[in-house]
Amino acid sequence: MAKTLTDTSVAEIEAWLEEHRNHEQPSQRTSVATHMAWIPDEWSRAAAGVMRGLGDRVPSRTLLLHPEPDAKGDGFDATITVDRFAGERSGVSVEIVQIRLRGSAAEAPASVVVPLQLPDLPVFLRWRGRPAFGRKYYEDLVGVADRLIVDSTEWDRLPSGLKKLSESFHCIAVSDLAWARTLPWRASIADLWPGIKEAKTLRVVGPRPEALLMRAWLESRLRRTFRLSHEDGAKLTRVEVDGEAVAPTRGLPCTPSDLLSAELEFFARDRVYEAAVRAV
Amino acid sequence: MTKNPLAEGLRVPRTPDPCVVVIFGASGDLTKRKLFPAIYSLAHRNLLPDEFAIVGVARTPESDAQFRRRMKDAVRTFGRDPIDEKVWKRLASGMHYVATDFAAERGEDELFDLLTKLDRERGTAGNRVFYFAVPPSAIATLVEELGRRRGEWKGWTRLIIEKPFGHDRASARRLREDAHRYFNEREVYRIDHYLGKETVQNILALRFANGIFEPLWNRELVDHVEITVAESMGIEGRAQFYEAAGAIRDVFQNHLLQLVALTAMEPPVDFTAESVRNEKVKVLSAIRPPGARRVVRGQYGPGHVEGKKVPGYRQEPGVAARSTTETFVAAKLYVDNWRWAGTPFYVRVGKRLATRETTIAIQFKRAPHPPFAREASEGVSPNVLLVHIQPDEGISLAIGAKVPGQGLNLRTVHMDFLYGGAFRTELPEAYERLILDCMLGDATLFTREDEVDAQWALVDSIVASWKRERAAFPNYEAGTWGPHAADELLRKDGRAWRRH
Is A149 left (phi over 0), alpha (psi -120 to 50) or beta? Predict the structure, then answer.
């Protein structure tokens, strides 16, 4: 069931959700989080794919924010979808509110999302593309979230971006999907302990951010330098330590939806990641 | 050795050491319905080590290929995951079958030769899980033979023993002594699959992760506790077992008393096996033997379950025409300790009851002085915190609320939390969790010898009291909530079983 509200208000969105809830068949409604996503136009298609894959895994209210600062008129439009997923004995409903922030509303997204967040539950903010470090709308959204989820492979100017990101560590827990994708390899490299203490080189075939993060991880954990040889690739496909190939550990999340779903389960700061970012 | 700094912060599930799982009773029902589907699901989720093998042992002749085919069918029929050919191929490559009789001279040689070969060829490192999916009478022989050859492998050994752990306290102690002659307690994993259920473990989460409940969880504020383990089905062709066991040994001695222990235990200092089990055994040891007047036994006669006519227990195939085996037990228990002194725990287990349901109800005392007109609050019952173990896993809290409209009329309403509504991950089967825990060496959800001993001490005292009086069976109709005497047990105290 979907409803589009043009030039709407938070009250109108809330009223529609409330009315929908009242007409729903009696069923279980449990939410575990508010999931916000900042989705500039160029990321819309990719974001939609991830959302479809996420399905009912994290019963939440999802607020998808599409900034259109150049659009005419200040205000916002909303498309509300309630997806109901049948369960063995009970179903769950996932509320997805797509909000197009027009004009100056794109500069003040927090004022729209705060009233729509579910009370007392954790708030995740998925930021598509490079975060707008230093911009008020970014700082405001970070200020109303508990965990920021980024993917540093979506950025250009990488080392400087990670440096900027590290400045947020004191105020918000951060997940980086690029870091999450290295987990199967990091798990296997960890199994090389204690022999790896003497290793000198790391070769990575895959995206540069992932290569940099893996080297930084090794350096920050083992407190010494590694020589990185990197060959660019769309996906992380090969990792070698001192010329020996490492096989990724099986069974860990790998699709974009799996990765995001896994990150929505974590609440605490990832100190190992933070140390790696500082070492990049 | 220095701690591995690379392992810190890795969010990966723990994988067990390389090992072989040997299933005794590989041709039996448990292996087919539960064990193999569970092992396959573990493989499906990549939770088994790469160096892994399974050996099925039974007397029935069968080849490796036949065993693999039969188990694949079992996974297809009883498993929760569809067969993934790649996963199956990997698992099947380590599956073997040994047809032997351990009671025969050198009957075990073929198995030990195979295990040595698997260590060499599959790198299973001499680590062995021996799963006894066999009748209790066969366990002593197996333990004896394994024990005699214990020195032949270098890795760790773990024995998984299925309930019932004996028939009474004396036989349980004999079983323990047999095992301890060759294996220490840390190597013995007594499996009560109830403890592997997510919702049973959730009792601990509910109690010890929520600051709001624990201050209320005591004799000062709890009026009484009700625990029901009800089944609507009959004995399902298990007459031979059930005639000897009855409801008291089949469910009361293990599942039910474990639920009492988890409900009443003190907070453990940590979640290690020893800390949790130390607290459980204190509760079990503090339960006062109830005496004949506080126990009701019953046996179902013919009746209707869900609209279908069902026979009485004595008409079930294989049951003696004048059987005095109980299919229902209710009791009023007291846990004699500081927290619970004087608070009754009403418990009941039974077959062919009105519905299938396992629940723990914590009924709180009434508000001391409700400032409402008597008529207005007639519809309000005391608060009840209800933990649903099965079938609808969850928690609900009954509270009083105002009926909308004029005046101030009150009614009881329920705040419900259904487990599956918040966590969409499919709940793992109890056997998956327990087999994996055993391979990982985590005995938290297994029953320790002193728990078993305390459970039998209580059950023996009840059974002894029954011997003094012949039961007038059958005394309840199938499809009802048991004999009237069970209702009387609470009515005498001015209480009643919860309405379902």
Answer: beta
| Chain B nearest CA to A117, separation (Å) | 17
Taking every pair of Cα atoms in chain A, the longest distance, rounded to a whole number of angstroms, is 65
For residue A253, pLDDT beyond 90:
no
pLDDT band, residue A254 (cuts 50/70/90): confident
Residue burial B40-69, b: 16+ Cβ < 10 Å; e: rest: bbbbbbbbbbebbbbbbbbeeebeeeebbe
Q: Tens digits of per-residue pLDDT, A74-111?
A: 899 999 988 776 655 556 667 889 999 999 999 999 98
- CA–centroid distance for B492 within its chain: 31
- Taking 90 as the threshold, does the pLDDT of residue B85 lie above it? yes
Beta bridge pairs of residue B333: B345
Q: Which residue of A32, A83, A90 is the best one to mutate when testing the B interface, meaning the one whose CB has the most B CBs within 10 A?
A: A90
SS3 A78: strand
Name every residue whose Cβ is closer than 8 Å to that of residue A173 and which is 6 or more positions away in sequence: A146, A147, A148, A266, A267, A268, A269, A270
Spell out which residues of chain B touch residue A85, defining contact as CB-CB under 8 Å. Answer: 424
pLDDT in tens, B406-438: 777 787 888 878 776 666 566 778 899 999 999
Report the residue of chain A nearest B44, measured CA to CA: A251
| Cβ-nearest to B421 among A90, A189, A262 | A90
**Closest in A87, A183, A190 to B4, CB measured:** A190
Segment B281-296 shows an average pLDDT of: 95
A196 contacts in chain B (CB < 8 Å):
6
Of A44, A104, A18, give the one whose Cα is nearest residue A68: A104
Instruction: Give the distance from residue A224's alpha carbon to the nearest chain B alpha carbon, in angstroms.
Output: 13
Known catalytic residues of B are 255
B210 touches A: beta carbon within 8 Å: no
Which strand ranges, in their side-by-side order, compose the sheet holding A173-176? A2-5, A75-85, A92-102, A60-68, A33-38, A123-127, A147-150, A173-176
Chain B residues in contact with A190 by the CB 8 A cut-off are: 4, 6-7, 10
Rounded CA-CA distance A134/A139 in Å is 7
Question: Using a CB-CB distance cutoff of 8 angstroms, which residues of chain A are in contact with residue B4?
Answer: 190, 193-194
Facing residue for A222 by CB, picked from B5, B422, B424:
B5
Backbone angles phi, psi at A135, to 5 degrees: -85, 145
B323: tokens are: 């059987």
Supply the mean pLDDT for chain B: 91
CB A248 within 8 A of CB A194: no
Give the global pTM. 0.83
CA separation for the pair B361, B380 (Å, rounded): 17
pLDDT at A28 over 70: no
Across the interface, which of B45, B421, B424 has its CB nearest the CB of A57? B424
